[in-house]
Amino acid sequence: MEKIAFIGFGEVNTPRDIIVRKCKAAEEALLAEGLDIVSVYPVTDDYEEKDIAVACLKLDGTDPDCLVICIAGWIPTHAVVKITEKYRHLPMVLWGLCGWMEDGRLVTTADQAGTTALRKTFRDLGYTFTYIYDVIGSPSNSGRVASYARAASAARRLRSDRVGMAGYRDMNLYGTLCDGNSLKREIGPEIETFEMLEMQQRYERVTAEEKAEVIASAMSRWQFLRPAARESMEKAAGYYLAVRSMINERGYKAISLKDVDGMKKLLGFPPAPVFMLLSDCAGVSTIPENDCLGSVTQLIVRELTNQCGAYLEFYEFFKDSVLAGVPDYIPAEVTDGPTTVMPAAFGELSEGILNVSKVKTGTVTMCRLFYEDGRYFMHVVKGEGKTPPRWEEAGWTQPAPQLPGLQVFLSDVGDFAEKVTCQHYIISYGDNTQIIRDLCGILHIGIV
Predict the structure, then answer these.
(1) Which of 140, 158, 176 lies at the terminal end of a domain, its last residue?
(2) Which of 80, 174, 236, 268 has the most CB atoms within 10 Å of its CB?
(3) What secondary structure letter does DSSP report for 262?
(4) Residues 149 and 251 placed together within one structural domain of the fold
(5) Global pTM value
(6) CATH number of the domain that 109 lies in?
(7) Is the domain of 261 the same as that of 406?
């Protein structure tokens, strides 16, 4: 649960009961949003600074994810800064409350006098913050405050998140690489590579009974359009258990495997069912082809939305939409109906278990983290995902499988195409653009 420090301010000459009433209403609205709150109010500019001392004492040792600076009336700047300076390393919300209507007249405590005096001061002091204000006659902006708090909490968790990656730079791609030092410094996650040899060694220690248990408990729930070879199912279960053992030991939240030049070429086994089991049973985000920043984008989406952050890649652009699909698998979380699979072969690759499930439709947010000229950026766009017409990728054994995909309708396909940064984008359901923007603001990631 996101933990915030809520500090309510009002000028010493404003009736104390009014400031307390307004702060309490704001606090209760944030509690209703599900936040864990340490509160102190009212803090005034009393001459002896007793309120400031009480606030500092109460906040000491609380270790919040962010500060909510709630301005319930006019407050001289110094009374706020004397507290915020001790927490300048934390993200903050500068939240201005508002007045009210009474007997046909507007009554104000000059909330926005306080916020407008503070906004540029916060910027000049180098604080990481967002500025939110309420408006008379409109609902409270507590939801926006809570969204920023969740983004701040997510940014904190990212500092210790880890990705496990078997191999590196599948197919010698450029767009899937990353710079580990800047990634750790600017965003936080660690990408730990492990050799496929270690995975293979662990696979060889998996017993027939352990494989059978996975087949019976997990793979038996899949809907097979045609029976798959028992050997293929046992390989999928065995490699899943091998990788899961590393996840359990090392705490990985996301996994990527060397796909085309790794498992397919060296082990003769397309890893689609392994990814499915890792996502659906081990609860980690998955992406193929050693896509480093794709994995980190998945971590960001998971921390912000609690969704797995499935990957899709682009096949075609149309005037008003893009065809985004996958040639291998989708997690059960984004599947519309049962997980549907079939044995299939592509080109010279060995036959594997291919996912041909339908993808859930609806409003989707597509995003991708990328690095350019020494800075990280996030390309984020909202669209409407609909079931595409029947399509196939040339090269599959006929009759070609209907691959999972969405036709995503965008407001401006041309603009998207001009900014697209990779073949892999991460999707989440709903309009998550604002909370992604909040996180990017906290981590100083540019928005495209």
Answers:
(1) 158
(2) 236
(3) I
(4) no
(5) 0.94
(6) 3.40.50.1070
(7) yes
Residue 419, phi then psi, degrees to nearest 5: -110, -10
Domain co-membership, 331 together with 200: yes
Which residue shows structure tokens 């909510």?
68
Amino acid at 179: D
Give the residue carrying structure tokens 């408006």.
Answer: 135
Same-domain pairing of 274 and 378 = yes
One domain for residues 292 and 388: yes
CATH of residue 355: 3.20.14
Domain total in the chain: 2
The residues near 81 (Cβ < 8 Å, ≥ 6 apart) are 121, 125
Nearest Cα to 280, choosing from 199, 334, 235, 358?
Answer: 334
**What are the helix (H) ranges across 283-348?**
292-305
Please report the DSSP string for 48-59 in residue order: T-HHHHHHHHHH
Tell me the pairing of strands 36-43 and 3-9: parallel
Tell me the C-alpha distance between 132 and 442, whole Å.
Answer: 15
CB 386 within 8 A of CB 407: yes
Task: Answer with the one of 158, 186, 205 that is the final residue of a domain.
Answer: 158
Secondary structure of residue 198 in the 3-state scheme? helix
Domain shared by 202 and 293, yes or no: yes
Q: Which residue has the tokens 């110094």?
A: 78
Please list, in sequence order, all residues whose beta carbon lies within 8 angstroms of the beta carbon of residue 89, skipping any fewer than 6 positions away.
none
Q: Phi and psi for 210 in degrees, rounded to 5? A: -65, -40
* CB count in 10 Å sphere of residue 340: 18
CB 152 within 8 A of CB 180: no
**Cβ neighbours of residue 252 under 8 Å, at least 6 residues apart?**
162, 163, 164, 192, 246, 284
> Whole domain around residue 144: which residue ranges?
3-158
Distance between CA 88 and CA 82 in Å, rounded? 11
Mean pLDDT, the chain cut into blocks of 10 residues (448 residues total): 94 96 98 96 96 96 96 97 97 98 95 97 98 96 97 97 95 94 96 96 97 97 93 96 98 96 92 97 97 98 97 97 96 97 71 91 98 96 96 80 95 97 97 98 97
Q: Are residues 234 and 378 in the same domain?
A: yes
Strand pairing report for 162-166 and 190-194:
parallel
Helix runs in 190-291, H state only = 196-204, 208-217, 230-250, 265-266, 272-280
**Would you give the end-to-end CA distance of the chain in angstroms?**
30
With the C-alpha atoms ordered 307, 34, 66, 15, is the resulting torsion angle positive or negative?
positive
